[in-house]
């Protein structure tokens, strides 16, 4: 019993020592996990098929810790709002996470699971047409006795229409 208490004292000392913090920080990070049967970026709460200007389009994805994206700069934004241009048959980015009209919310769950909710406050200046929301992120994966790796993912919502009336 005494040896066990001594061991616990040493562990407590390591955990509270500021000099050991850089050594323990990688060990204390929780790996990101998607729920069973889901992958990162899967849509959990879909968009409505149609919105009017002035309304809020909201979609929720299976997410990962946004700090992972800060450590790995594959993507330079967490989200984009894209409009389909029929003349060029391409999706054009009209907003990203730096836009006043967008919001990105990360909801930390249990055991490394989390969700990302994206809201687009559709401005009065939005042109009618087909839109979609794209989520870009990174998740931390670690196999037993292996160093952690950060992997990128991206996902796209279903297409929805924006109308003026």
UniProtKB/TrEMBL annotation:
One Pfam family here = Ceramidse_alk_C
Which ranges of the sequence are coiled-coil?
none
Highest rank taxon of the organism: Eukaryota
Q: Where is the Neutral/alkaline non-lysosomal ceramidase C-terminal domain?
A: 30-162
Q: Family per UniProt?
A: Belongs to the neutral ceramidase family.
Protein's name according to its UniProt entry: Inactive neutral ceramidase B isoform X3
Q: What is the lineage of its organism?
A: Eukaryota, Metazoa, Chordata, Craniata, Vertebrata
Gene from which this protein is expressed: LOC103549842
């Amino acid at each position: 019993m005494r040896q066990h208490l001594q061991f616990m004292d040493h562990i407590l000392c390591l955990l509270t020592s500021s000099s050991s913090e850089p050594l323990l920080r990688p060990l204390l990070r929780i790996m990101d996990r998607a729920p069973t049967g889901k992958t990162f970026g899967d849509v959990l709460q879909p968009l409505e098929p149609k919105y009017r200007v002035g309304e809020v389009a909201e979609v929720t994805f299976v997410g990962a810790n946004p700090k992972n994206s800060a450590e790995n700069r594959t993507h330079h934004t967490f989200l984009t709002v894209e409009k389909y241009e029929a003349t060029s048959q391409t999706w054009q980015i009209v907003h990203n996470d730096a836009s006043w009209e967008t919001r990105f919310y990360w909801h930390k769950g249990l055991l490394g699971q989390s969700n990302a909710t994206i809201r687009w406050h559709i401005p009065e200046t939005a042109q009618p047409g087909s839109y979609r929301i794209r989520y870009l992120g990174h998740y931390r994966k670690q196999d037993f006795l292996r160093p952690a790796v950060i992997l990128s993912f991206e996902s796209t919502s279903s297409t929805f229409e924006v109308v003026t009336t």
